[in-house]
Amino acid sequence: MPGFVKKLVGAAVILVVLYAVSAAMSREGLFGFGLGAYESEVLMLVGINVILAVSLNLINGFTGQFSIGHAGFMAIGAYASAYFTVYHGQGLEQSLGGGTFAHALVFTVAILIGAVVAGVMGLLVGVPSLRLRGDYLAIVTLGFAEIIRIVILNLDVVGGATGFSVPGTVSFFWVGIVAVITIVVVHNIVKSDTGRALISIREDELAAEAMGVNTTRYKVLSFAISSAFAGVAGVLFGHFKRFLATPDFTFIKSFEVIIMIVLGGMGSITGAVLGAIVITILPELLRQLPSVGGFNFADLRLVIYAALLIVIMLTRPQGVLGEREIGLHWLRRAQKAPEGDRQVGDDSGVPIAQKPKAADQEGTGGGGQNR
Amino acid sequence: MKRTLITLGLATLLLGAFACERRDGGGPTGSTGDGSGIIKVGVYGDLSGQTSSFGESTRDGVRMAVDEINAAGGINGRKVEIVVEDDQGQPQQASTVVTKLINQDKVVAIIGEVASSNSLAAAPRAQEAKVPMITPSSTNPKVTQVGDYIFRVCFTDDFQGAVAAKFAVNTLKAKRAAILGDFNSDYSKGMTQYFEPEFTASGGQIVARQSYTQTDADFKGQLTNIRAANPDVIFVPGYYGQVGVIAKQAKELGITAPLLGGDGWDSPKLFELGGTALDGSYMVNHYSTDDPSPAVQKFVAAYKQKFGAVPDAIAALGYDAMNVLADAIRRAGGTDSAKLRDAIAATKGFPGVTGSININASRDAVKPAVVFELKDRKLVYKETIQPSGAATGAAPAASPAAAGSTAGASSPGTNANAPAAEGGAGGSSANTNTNAK
Amino acid sequence: MDTFVQQIINGLTIGSIYALIALGYTMVYGILRLINFAHGDIYMLGAYAGYYIAHWLGFAGEPSIAGLAVTLVGSMVAAALLGMAIERFAYRPVRKYARMTTLITAIGVSLLLENLGVVIFGGAPRSFPEQLQNETYTLFGNAAISKTQLLIFGVSVVLMVLLQWIVYKTKVGTAMRAVSFNLNSAKLMGINTDAIIVFTFALGSALAAAGGVLTAQYNPTIYPLMGIITGLKAFVAAVLGGIGNIPGAVLGGLLIGAAETFVVGYGQLIGIPSTYRDAVAFAILILVLLFRPAGLLGTTVQEKV
Questions:
Q1: What is the location of CATH 3.40.50.2300 in chain B?
Q2: Can you give the C-alpha Rg of chain A in angstroms?
Q3: In this complex, which of C97, C290, C293 lies closest to A356 when CB atoms are compared?
Q4: Scanning every residue of chain C, which has its alpha carbon at the shortest distance from the alpha carbon of A300?
Q5: Count of domains for chain A
Q6: Domain spanning B30-155+309-357: which superfamily?
Q7: Is the pTM of this model over 0.95?
Q8: Which of C76, C94, C91, C83 is nearest to C20 (CA)?
Q9: B171-201 pLDDT tens trace
Q10: Dist. CA B119–CA A245, nearest whole Å
């Protein structure tokens, strides 16, 4: 089968699956079977978190730049698109004649607005801050995200402290499509020349620069793309929850996304997906813990969640998948690697970035160093 | 691409394992189990976040009401069971747990939240599923505007803010007011929004406007500015956690103007934190534990015995919310969601411990507010201010006889025509500002 | 004028507390290159330790200097032990891994302490007993300074001088500086680096606990999540002063405290509402890092190729 046919078939299958899941989540259900509203809600959150985790992985996992400001960009996308929907969206939908098509069109515009605004913001934040390394970058991205949140909190036009009600609904079809697009885009970037440049920056920034890689340009690029996807996740989140309030976009949310990619394995797309699924569903499953002798075990779920994170770090710091992808070997067999496209890093499953570095142990003095 | 497929397949598999159920005819889940068996009521609130004392109080108040109802043989012979969920004080979690309560636990009605943003986040889910939700203590007017299944048993910010302003002008004879609020909190903002116009319309002047955040450890910067403005009264529409400290630090700076606040002050902890520095301050609240009416005293005594603490207004409102609900179920003759909704909406003159509760056309409770003076670590009853109808944009149904509790003891109450025209007008303009402005 | 003096006093009070906490961040970072995210939570636990000590030993009733001293020292000891335990069981096993791993472990420890705090102490705020008979002194006309504020200044200065003495005049301090300069070389010189690291954690945690108890004297509201924002701001202070640099942390703490108070006091005049108070701390951080990444007192070290 030629490549493009295979891709077409793949796309068709994905569309059918998404449509089926979406139908199963609707009130009517799929052939009489369906998911409960609670399960559907959790599944929507899984989809949104997959977008967040996979996009953050581009900057944290593949480029090796530690950002903890993802929630800020998510907030930008959410609020920008909600502003559009509330103040212009309904009018636009009516002038288009209403109906499903008009709604889909307007929602697509909302998604694009979220992506562009968050992406531009990512660019603005990225250009100055990506000159910094490691911990410093981490703390600056955190600072920017908090500033974004506080500014939104003071904007009465988007509800300020009360929160912002957003009309409309989002079906799983939308979330699924965007999640798939995110995965495909990130996958394609990683496998392209750009991806190799990003990975070279992660492995050794100085060496990459010496080899002629414009490190600043690539770092900013990946940061902006990552932010744009976070913005789209925000769009979906806002229109799905139909209510936006700033307490949902604190750095705790950024931490949550980091935990997802750390759990799955930094530098693994399927790992990020897996992490997003587990971290979203786990707290909900822990809610089901029974109450014994007046003590409610469900109260311990956040403690368990935190303890789990530490245990993973102590026992398997590279995450469950490390840098591997599920089904990678299968993919290799089916697809001949292009000439000269050798896997960066070794195949032992232990990523180079996680290996103890001599410099790490030395702990040389002074600040501002990466490793 | 194939990898994507596999991922997707895995996700679907996981989803399949997670849950799959047969649809029961597509009807709203709220109507299941009507007629007999246990009545399940969902309660959600912040049990582990920063405002967890509010969530705990609500839960305890509801629990006490449920225990009393069950001890008396249940509602129409059916026992009540509550399912409590924690939302960590996060709006996002609030809507998720309400979805869980409705669809997994199949509750017939929901009680919660305290913080208005969390109620606002969760209300659309209840509205969609047509499961009545009663918020015991979210005072933001917007909450009940989400839909016709959303109710409240407390008064609203516009009424409360206006009552405070009226009290400042009429009783305290204040001409210059300073405002010190947490303007990152919707509660503070809402109260201020209705205090200001009322106060200035009565000839007063706002001389300073200062803001803090809930995480601040220090308020002296703001208080120093307020001291420089030399106000007659300082309006502090915040929560007790900060108010106690604000009172202390104000005293240290030599500020003598009285502090004035609302129901956010209400907590047994207020005096622990503020001590005698709070002497001479005033607060607007829903009810008084010192109210001699037998209903209130019975409630206070029973609560003390059960939970070892004096019930704050949040607990009392949780108790009232549950009782209003039980009363409605009784009148509806079952838990059919539409009938139950109508029954709650028809609540008139319900004798709650926080006053006589009338649900008006906009599904808000119309009830009196009580003003207290804080003296020597105690709340001293000052006056009761009746709603004047305009308060919640409702029609004449207001002006309750207030036969029951609080108002009974309160004849001298300067019936301060509280939130008259401006309050109401301010209310409606604020209500629409999401869509207009 | 007296308003201005008053704002300075207010800013320095809160700044001294930030400085005490920032010292812990800066020492740990200096030695391990680790942002100890759990440090803010140690500050919180220090305050709770003080609360329990005061209640158990009966110092919660009447204000007394002795009671305060016992509470302060007791909570410092408790926090030091806790800091050592965290280092031993959470950080040491991951020390050999990449920086990212240790950072994430720190985030995990922080979340664990916060959530355990909520489960054990309950999420609602508690009121710290008043341990100092409060009096207010007036200076410069109308500017007031309270006994608590004087206490905070006094204890902070004493602790900082003590720290400076330990680091520069004692043997263990010399070892600390050696480890901070180069961990492996220090090991080769026969320094028990593990012991030094544990000592550093104990020292930093004790200072954070002192900050917790002192804050509680000033603002008696303690709650399990109180360490998040304060810890973050103290970290900002450490970075501002030049992370790894002890006088820098003190300077940074005082500057952040003063900047915050001035945003509240005078921000409105230049169009910054006081609701932007927290944003200003971060904005300062970002500007400093962009224009002087090593912080005010830090020195830039050329990256090795």
A1: 30-155+309-357, 158-285
A2: 21
A3: C97
A4: C119
A5: 1
A6: Response regulator (3.40.50.2300)
A7: no
A8: C76
A9: 888 999 999 988 777 888 888 988 999 999 9
A10: 11
